Amino acid sequence: AQKITQTQPGMFVQEKEAVTLDCTYDTSDQSYGLFWYKQPSSGEMIFLIYQGSYDEQNATEGRYSLNFQKARKSANLVISASQLGDSAMYFCAMSLITGGGNKLTFGTGTQLKVEL
Amino acid sequence: DAGVTQSPTHLIKTRGQHVTLRCSPISGHKSVSWYQQVLGQGPQFIFQYYEKEERGRGNFPDRFSARQFPNYSSELNVNALLLGDSALYLCASSRDRGEAFFGQGTRLTVV
């Protein structure tokens, strides 16, 4: 079974600063994918970034980067130059890569608040 | 290109009734998965379909069922609704592997 742990229920960051949201995972499988999603109060789950377990380089998407440390089983999300619109709930998730799509296991989320 | 679309966006049902939720994946995506998100929690996996076959089922009672159609759209059915079924129901589509994209969700309220 897979497990995702997000130990930060809430985080505060000042506008224009960088912030790191922590995520650790547990799986005995070698082939898996790691995901980060943003969920504003409207409820929509917005895809941010994806990292495959065999990808050698850390994934980046604009202001988002995933700090993937396989030996430590961590997949932290780094948001650079925070904006007020980044205030939302952030979920880390994983899925085994077995072909045929994704079955995502989610963490409990981190509520991020960006302040002026 | 259109993203994942779910319908309806909001729904109010009475205990004991039946509900059908619908999801259309992104064009070219053959996999659909369903999740239930209760207020204050992370989404919980319900079903996964790929090429019209069930590939996974979460820990939900038999009152929950789903199917995928030849055009890869999907339906989630819930029978004999309970108050505890009130939640945001999310559908995600993906290719064979890689990124998974969600629809805006269906917010179900059971009264």
Helix-strand category of chain B: mainly beta
Q: What is the rounded Rg of chain A?
A: 14 Å
% residues in beta strands of chain A: over 45%
Estimate what percentage of residues of chain B fall within beta strands.
over 45%
Give me the strand/helix succession of chain B. EEEEEEEEEEE
* Average pLDDT rating of chain A: 95
Low-confidence runs of at least 5 consecutive residues of chain A: none
State the separation between the terminal residues of chain B, measured CA to CA.
37 Å
* Separation, N- and C-terminal Cα atoms of chain A: 41 Å
Task: Give the overall average pLDDT of chain B.
Answer: 95
Total beta strands of chain B: 11
> Could you say which structural class the secondary elements and strand pairing of chain A correspond to?
mainly beta
**Percent of residues in helices of chain A:** under 10%
DSSP, total strands of chain A: 12
Helical residues, percent of chain B = under 10%
- General form of chain A: globular
* Most extensive interface: A-B, 26 and 32 residues
Biggest sheet overview of chain B:
7 strands, mixed
- How many helices of chain B in DSSP terms? 0
Q: In sequence order, what are the helices and strands of chain A, one letter per element? A: EEEEEEEEEEEE
